[in-house]
Design goal:
This protein is of the alpha+beta class and about 700 residues long. The chain folds into 5 domains: about 5-135, PAS domain (Beta-Lactamase, 2-Layer Sandwich), CATH 3.30.450.20; about 155-290, Beta-Lactamase; about 315-375, Helix Hairpins; about 385-540, 2-Layer Sandwich (Heat Shock Protein 90); about 565-695, Rossmann fold (3-Layer(aba) Sandwich), CATH 3.40.50. Helix content is about 45%, strand content about 25%. Strands 11, 12, 13, 14, 15, 16 and 17 form a 7-stranded mixed beta sheet that branches. A 5-stranded antiparallel beta sheet has the order 2-1-5-4-3, sandwiched between helices. It has a 5-stranded antiparallel beta sheet with strand order 7-6-10-9-8. Helix 13 runs antiparallel to helix 14 (about 345-375) and helix 15 packs parallel to helix 16. The longest helix is centred in the middle third of the chain and has 51 residues, at about 290-340. The radius of gyration is 35 Å and the shape is extended. The chain starts with a helix and ends with a helix.
């Protein structure tokens, strides 16, 4: 028995005259207590809970549920229930939650319960106190009500032509009256969002009453500014006069109030005609056009936003033109200078470094613009995988450290407040968020400044934790006016000339979109001259087992010199560049211009001849996916198991997923960055060695 359980038992024992125990054990509804951890062990139940589950004893209940909250919930509802509880507890200052779900009842029939939970944090983690009640009858009543409504609609559909017109009109409600006799012929009501209008509820009970009386009554529910106008429109003498003049269709818009107190704009249509015995009849129809009007308003707002966006894009293109031309001018200009001074080694080396720097700037601008476009199109998706956060943070540090070191910035990562490092997370998206924030911090922090990345964890419940990533710098800060707009696309506080920092104004928009995609939250605090603090909060699911950090595991250094690789690339220029770079780094490179050629080369050479394959994706006859699948299907296991790394300009999560699904081991972006590629190759080869070692011990 752990400390939390002991505390619980003590609480029961200390209750005067067993008052609390008697309340809990004898209340009409179910009550239970369970741990707020990955196992969700049940610590206490009352007798009423046994009845809800159809169990005769506690032993029978524990056997039915496995003694856990997870075992109580119907499997199809479990994930939704856990996520809802976690979200509510996080966002409720009192840590309360309410959920409805099906339970695993003893007799196997469908039973629904209402769950009222309260999360209490303890020294050993946390505990949920939960009250539940069986609401199965209420659900059945809902179904019966729906069936009654459906039956009513079937009856309506069988009416005469005027009623069919009403149905086609999509009327909220309609009824037929005799103007000659001032009475209802029939009355029909329909619902809006499952709610009836009070003024029309009485129609069914008032078929024999006068229509004029009903109009006087219903006008009380009409906008107080126009009740007389409403009564005037439905005046019988006026409608009879319209019939005599051949004006057989009358329309009118008026506000009404529904049972929820909401104002709804109704569009009335009155169709006049002749009934039996020479009576003049009227079919009254009403349509709720509130949403239509709201959509029109939204369209107007959207139009204004689109106009503002066009202005923003025009401004962006103006700034972007300068930002793109600046690195392009550097690339072209320094290329000409190299030609003029080709024999001056030191000078050309300096020019080449500046060309590379400008090329990277240009690539960043293009990547950010593409990312924003993808986000706005709704094509971005999450790809959550198993991850150890230490590995993720190590990769982030590897990316940003050169930039920090170049400006002698003191950069630290604080993860002391994290307990659970093994989680499910979209690694690529999370790295992108952190790298973008740290890149931004480095740009706007002066030399010898300070940048800190702090990671904090707060255990929630149901195997979930709230993780907070804080990026703090002591840089130049952000103005109060710009803080409101900094996450908008195509916006920059200063133009390139004034700030001296190249960029498109898209980086923060990308970050915001990624955080929203992960159902997270981002906040920023800043003061000019003192620095900025960006806070990203996301909820992540814990892994059941700690997978361990690969970056922390000691391993023998892997030498890449002399490694033989097969470069599969159909573009001659790309192939020439890649081959030259790889050869300079000590690799033995062989090339194939298409996927089918690559497959034949692997088949025709000895097993183990190639240490790995760099595979382009888009090729004319057999693309990279097809070639990888063909290699993995070879009969020889060693040939089939050769490491394959995708080499592609498409680097989105979906593209990486497709590469892995095709049998590839990793995904490297174009253009080639040799430092990153070497690191990736080592990682793949280390993984192969570890897997081989693991199999040898099995």
């Amino acid at each position: 028995m752990d400390e939390s359980t002991k505390e619980l038992m003590k609480a029961f024992d200390k209750c005067p005259t067993d008052l609390f125990r008697n309340i809990v054990e004898n209340m009409p509804g179910g009550f239970f207590i369970y741990r707020a951890d990955g196992n969700e062990e049940i610590l206490h139940i009352n007798d009423a809970l046994l009845g809800i589950f159809g169990c005769d004893s506690r032993e029978e209940f524990l056997k039915l549920t496995g003694g856990t909250f997870k075992g109580m919930v119907f499997p199809d509802d479990l994930d939704k229930v856990q996520k809802s509880i976690a979200y509510q507890v996080i966002n409720n200052k009192n840590h309360l939650d309410y959920v409805e779900y099906r339970i695993n009842h003893k007799d196997g029939t469908e039973h629904w319960v209402e769950d009222y939970g309260h999360f209490i944090r303890t020294e050993s983690g946390g505990i949920f106190y939960v009250f539940i009640a069986d609401n199965t009858d209420r659900i059945k009543k809902r179904m019966n009500n729906l069936e009654s409504i459906n039956n009513e609609l079937v009856r309506i559909s069988a009416r005469e032509s005027q009623y069919r017109k009403a149905i086609l009109y999509d009327a909220l409600f309609f009824f037929e009256i005799s103007l000659t006799e001032d009475k209802f012929i029939t009355a029909v009501t329909q619902t809006y969002d499952g709610q009836m209008f009070d003024v029309f509820d009485s129609i069914n009970d008032s078929v024999e009453t006068g229509f004029s009386d009903f109009i006087n009554f219903s006008s009380k529910r009409i906008n107080q500014n126009e009740p007389n106008e409403y009564k005037g429109f439905f005046d019988i003498k006026r409608l009879l006069s319209c019939y005599d003049n051949g004006e057989l269709e009358q329309t009118y818009d008026s506000w009404a109030v529904d049972t929820l107190g909401r104002k709804r704009l109704l569009h009335y249509v009155v169709l006049l005609g002749e009934g039996g015995d020479g009576q003049v009849t009227a079919l009254v129809m009403a349509k709720d056009i509130t949403e239509q009007i709201e959509r029109q308003k939204l369209l107007q707002v959207s139009l204004r936003q689109a106009q503002a966006a066009n202005i923003a894009k025009s401004t962006f293109l103006s700034n972007m033109s300068h930002d793109i031309r600046t690195p392009l001018n550097a690339i072209l200009g320094f290329t000409d200078l190299i030609r003029m001074h080709i024999d001056e080694q030191d000078r050309t080396a300096d020019y080449l470094e500046k060309i590379k720097f400008s090329g990277n700037q240009l690539l960043t601008i293009v990547n950010e613009a593409l990312e924003v476009t993808r986000m706005e199109s709704g094509k971005a998706v999450l790809a959550e995988t198993e991850c150890h956060l230490i590995d993720l943070l190590a990769e982030v540090e590897k990316v940003v450290l050169p930039q920090m070191s170049a400006k002698s910035i003191c950069f630290t990562i604080d993860k002391s407040a994290v307990t659970h490092f093994s989680v499910y997370v979209d690694i690529i998206r999370t790295k992108e968020i952190l790298c973008q924030l740290l890149d931004n911090a480095a740009k706007y922090t002066n030399s010898h400044g300070k940048v800190t990345l702090t990671v904090k964890e707060e255990t929630v419940s149901g195997g979930y934790g709230k993780y907070t990533f804080e990026v703090v710098d002591n840089g130049i800060g952000i103005s109060e006016q710009f803080l409101e707009h900094m996450f908008e696309p195509f916006t920059r506080e200063k133009n390139t000339t004034k700030s001296g920092v190249l960029g498109s104004g898209l980086g923060m928009a990308v970050v915001r979109s990624l955080v929203d995609l992960m159902d997270g939250r981002i906040d920023v605090k800043s003061k000019q001259g003192e620095g900025s603090k960006f806070t990203v909060t996301i909820v992540l699911k814990y892994l059941e087992k700690d997978i361990g950090a690969l970056s922390a595991a000691p391993s023998e250094p892997i030498s890449l010199k002399g490694r033989r690789l097969l470069l599969v690339e159909d573009n001659e220029i790309n192939s020439e560049i890649a081959q030259a770079l790889l050869t300079e780094d000590g690799f033995v490179v062989e090339t194939a211009s298409d996927g089918d050629i690559a497959v034949e080369m692997i088949k025709n050479n000895d097993a183990g001849y190639y240490d790995f394959v760099l595979m382009d994706i888009q090729m004319p006859r057999m693309n990279g996916y097809e070639a990888s699948r063909a290699i993995r299907s070879l009969n020889d296991k060693e040939r089939a198991g050769v490491p394959i790394i995708a080499l592609s300009a498409n680097t989105y999560a979906e593209d990486r997923k497709k590469s892995i699904e095709a049998g590839m081991d990793a995904h490297a972006p174009k253009p080639i960055d040799m430092v990153s590629l070497q690191s990736l190759i080592k990682e793949v080869l280390e993984r192969k060695i570890l897997n081989a070692s693991s199999k040898s011990w099995q």
